[in-house]
Design brief:
By secondary structure, the chain is mainly alpha-helical. The chain has a three-stranded antiparallel beta sheet. A hairpin with an 8-residue loop joins strand 1 and strand 2.
């Protein structure tokens, strides 16, 4: 049994799309941003979705700051890391879109099949 060329083309396009999506998800899952706080004593790790995944505090950090100063330092570092993760995410998305547009432009348009003679 043979598959109609249009059906095969659709199946191939779907397979390519699945691979592209899997690659994009893997790249997004790998995003990590670690921007130090203004004091340099705190380094959060944030993923592509802006979730805090880790927080490093240099020894003695909590003793050197008041609670308000410590909170401000932590929040500043998290904000910077979140912005960096968002930039990385945006680059991935723009790359995927650009790659997709490049592939679309390089693919020849399918030629319509001639109608059978009657």
């Amino acid at each position: 049994m043979t598959i109609h060329p249009d059906v095969q083309a659709a199946l191939d396009a779907a397979r390519q799309l699945r691979h592209r999506i899997a690659d994009m998800r893997e790249r997004i899952d790998d995003v990590r941003a670690r921007r130090p706080s203004p004091s340099g004593a705190i380094i959060p790790e944030v993923d592509a979705m802006g979730r805090l995944t880790s927080l490093y505090m240099a020894p003695g950090t909590a003793d050197r700051f008041t609670s308000d100063e410590l909170a401000a330092d932590v929040m500043a570092a998290i904000r910077e890391s979140t912005q960096d993760a968002a930039r990385q995410y945006q680059v991935i998305m723009e790359t995927v879109i650009t790659e997709n547009e490049s592939e679309d432009q390089s693919s020849p348009e399918p030629k319509p099949e001639p109608e059978p003679a009657r």
